[in-house]
Amino acid sequence: MSPSRPPQHVVIVGGGSAGWMTANLLMHQWRERGVRITLIESSEIGTIGVGEGSTPFLRDFFRHLGISEQDWMPACNATFKCGIRFPNWSTVPGYASYVHPFFNQEDLAIGSQFFTNACLRRRGTAADANPQDFFIAAELARQGKAPLYAPQHGGPSNPGTDYAYHFDAGLLGQFLKAHAESLGVRHQVGTVAEVNRHENGDIAALRLHDGTVLAGDFFVDCSGFKGLLINETLGEPFVSYQDNLFNDRAIAIPTALDPAAPLPSETVSTALTCGWAWKIPLSSRFGNGYVYASQFISDDQAEAELRQHLGPAADGQTARRLKMRVGRVEQHWRNNCLAIGLSQGFIEPLEATALMLIQFSVQCFVESLEQAEFSRRNQAAYNRRINQMFEGVRDYVVAHYHLNTRQDTAYWQANRAHGRISDRLASILEVWDRGGDFEAELTRHGNALMYFRPSWYCLLAGMGRFPATLQPPRLGHVPLSALQARKETAGIAGRFQDHRAGLAQGLSLA
Ligand SMILES: Cc1cc2nc3c(=O)[nH]c(=O)nc-3n(C[C@H](O)[C@H](O)[C@H](O)COP(=O)(O)OP(=O)(O)OC[C@H]3O[C@@H](n4cnc5c(N)ncnc54)[C@H](O)[C@@H]3O)c2cc1C
Asked: Is the model's pLDDT at 476 over the cut of 90?
């Protein structure tokens, strides 16, 4: 590949979300430059078929491609997501459930009180500090509202509320496929049987089961957990995260929506005995599942527990059982091959970060090619950057497990006790616990953190990570109470649009 020139024929293996997101991003970027892109997808090997929640960065993905919410959301049964609620992770009184909200300009008044209260409380002063009481997004979710103003309050404008989406993963794949094809991506159905390589180790061509040979000068491995090109062909080592992220299995069971009930606008991630259960509202149904650790619970026990958790809604619904490979490859870009999606790695879905990592990985790749001369050095820099992203997300996810206070099962006790957390996470927790300068501590880690100040505060305070003994507040400095904060956020949330009605009216921003 010559300096600053994209490859001329890119071959993508895999037609899951990773393959189609990559095809769209690369074609959008390079189609004016005569680049050809072929995506090969097996009709015998299915896609993972789950992955129904996003982070707010998916908004940038669609904006970048020029696709409006009106276009893609109805086609994918999508809903708005104001944050994630975490019931039963903590046993600290007052903290049995908390929220990781997306943030809002209107939070500047009440939300900022949350940070003050959390700081008081971690330094030993009594103050309410559960984020679910202080943030507009949490109240929107409680009221079944979309993160957009109602028409009578100037809607569908948005007062700077960050938000994300829930969607049907299969429909998203179909939507992205159609868009990629409209940009000129060629879709070929076939199963790769053999990979031919040049003498220098680069991939030269793929031979399909039907004998077709497909040559290319750059290959993207979107083949899912097996890593057909990156692991099986190039032999890239896999760095497992299983020593501090125990969950390696999932069971998914859809349930029906109640058309008469408000449509929720949050993901609920409830801790169960050996993992956690997701509940994701789409416009057509709920997606549910249990993410668990096979060393602590059998598949049959996990399915029984999930069915009990879901109640009669799960009766007669078929369960899908999935295995997860949790960790990342050492190098995501090696020779003339880039691994994207589950082939490059996966951090279990607690914070719904996988599509965000796909998006960042492709965008960074394009920048690496376009900003600098192609060299081994910028390939190494790319791999370091992506590894840093994975480690940044991993630390934040690991913190959820490490901070749990449940005593009921060996699973939760082991998650708290194993001690195999990164030095960075250990340092963040140490500064929080001793009441040190938390802002300075987060700043010190800079880009290595994938989650910033509000998210860390919500997690640590939300779990009730505070000293056991508390002093009353100083006279004249009474912190804002949860009751008062709720009253004020409820008033603001009242100006927002009902979620179900908003979707039905095609209410969206872009
Ligand atoms: C339980 C669970 C929950 C998740 N929840 C979320 C979430 O909430 N949010 C989120 O962002 N992500 C989530 N994810 C991750 C998300 O599902 C994936 O990151 C995303 O779907 C991308 O998958 P993929 O395209 O890499 O792989 P896959 O969907 O597995 O696709 C692999 C593709 O490769 C093709 N293929 C394989 N071998 C060959 C071959 N030999 N020849 C030709 N083609 C081949 C297959 O046909 C298929 O098209 C979750 C994952 C799991 C397991």
From this structure: no
